Amino acid sequence: MAEEEAGMFTVRQTLGTVLCCKCGISMEPNAANMCVKCLGSEVDITEDLQKNVLIMYCPECGSYLQPPKTRIKAQLESPELLAFCVKRLKNLHKVKLIDARFILTEPHSERIMVELVIQRNVMNGLILQQRYQVDYVVQDQMCDTCSRAQVNPDQLVASVQVRQHVPHRRTFFYLEQLILKHDAAVKSIRIKQMDKGIDFFFANRSHAVKFVEFLGKVTPIKSRHDKQLVSHDRKNNTYNYKYTFSVEISPVCREDLICLPPKVKNTLGNIGPLVICTKVSNSIALLDPQTLRTCFLDADQYWRYSFKSLLSSRQLTEYIVLDITPSEVNVPGTNYVLAHAEVARVSDFGSNDTNFLIRTHLGHLLKPGDYALGYDLYGANSNDIEMDKYKGLEIPYAVLIKKSYEEKRQKKRAKPRSWKLKTLNMEVDDPKGRVDEEKISSEYEQFLQDLEENPDLRFNISLYRDTENQPSEMTSVTDGEHLPAVPLHELLADLEISDDEEYKETEEASTKE
């Protein structure tokens, strides 16, 4: 400007142009020497992108399926639906998404159209922008929840009724985890929680038979089946039946005290007769706490005699260990240590000085001052028929079952667990409101505590990390106060694909591209 004011001649800079090699129009030079129109006709940046996508829609609850199992509820032409449609496109990370919008369609057309504006590098860094349309075909398919709610009773061809005649549900809590780990009930149409068990409904008899076989491999059962005629076609000579399988689980549970019948005692090599059930699988593991002898009773042997427990886990009494002396007798091949202990009932503190000298198999766990749970045979009023058959039987004052951590748990009751369990999608059959929710919650909490205390019990089930309740550090099986806990290396990561994170990663990849 100063030179022009001074009257000097200046040469203006002009931008050079070239002719397009295809159509010959004047254009600014680029790496391809082609105009935008000709370059778009030569290169299609949408060739590896999807143009047609099939999406599943549940007409009952109005949700769309985000594979594999996530359900998203969204209204037509809403931002949530637009984000869902964009995420369903494959290879979108290879381009940069500039804009996306809906194209107006009729609601009854079962079509959703989206127009996308994308950019992509072509020919030596040249960026080309293009619009293209994606057609989404909406196919109606009910979700699992709505399918179970709308199921026709005639489709329930077979049912498996699992029952156990005990006053608690601890066995079913453990059985539920085994079913989830092995996907044994994946073919079931409906699962219903009953008063004394669980009912499983199947659309095919073979699925029910396979499920009963699975139950026989993980717990001692006896089963019977029956069928009922539903319809009969005389012309084709075809019959439709409803099949019912009745499965009864052995009432003997882990930590129960059992008085063996004389015939069973002789069959098992004169063990007992007072024994503890230490494990229940397809066989029952029994332990004599006085001699540390062990034996196993399979399902056929048990149901041949069909005895019941003398005392169950709901009758456990808390004791305090005053003194304990390990015995010199060493039984090879067992994890237990025989010991002589002096114990007293916690409820007797402050009222009397009654102490008991007993023999226990927990010499490797207990030390003076510890608490233990056991059966009070000194104050128990037992009317067991099998015990009356033994003349001159010397009954111990108490039988200790396990170490108790209740006092330490009360100090850290507010601390959440760093792990969680999955549950079956069950309906609760309670027409008269007889289900005691507080009792079930207490039994479930006791089941979780048993998992923390017993590594063998959680060996066959899957525990998952609870991302919402993660401790700062956890390096041993017990915490600072020697409270049993589940170590982190035993926990599985709960695979949950977050749609927001997946979309964010796609956007970042598109930006880098």
From TrEMBL:
Q: Where is the composition biased (Acidic residues)?
A: 496-505
In the record, biological process GO terms are:
protein transport; ribosomal large subunit export from nucleus
Q: Which UniProt keywords apply?
A: Cytoplasm, Nucleus, Protein transport, Transport
- What does the entry list under GO cellular component? cytoplasm; nucleus
List the InterPro entries hit by this protein, alphabetically: Nmd3, Nmd3_N, NMD_SH3, OB_NMD3
- The domain of life for this entry's organism is Eukaryota
Q: Where is the stretch described as Disordered?
A: 494-513
Q: What region holds the Nmd3 N-terminal domain?
A: 20-249
Q: Where along the sequence do coiled-coil regions lie?
A: none
Q: Name one GO molecular function term.
A: ribosomal large subunit binding
Principal location listed in the UniProt entry: cytoplasm
Cellular localisation: Cytoplasm; Nucleus
Q: Which residues form the 60S ribosomal export protein NMD3 SH3 domain?
A: 252-297
Q: Where is the 60S ribosomal export protein NMD3 OB-fold domain?
A: 316-403
Q: Is Oxidoreductase one of the keywords UniProt gives this record?
A: no
- Tell me, in a sentence or two, what this protein's role is: Acts as an adapter for the XPO1/CRM1-mediated export of the 60S ribosomal subunit.
In the record, the note on similarity to other proteins reads: Belongs to the NMD3 family.
Protein name, please?
60S ribosomal export protein NMD3
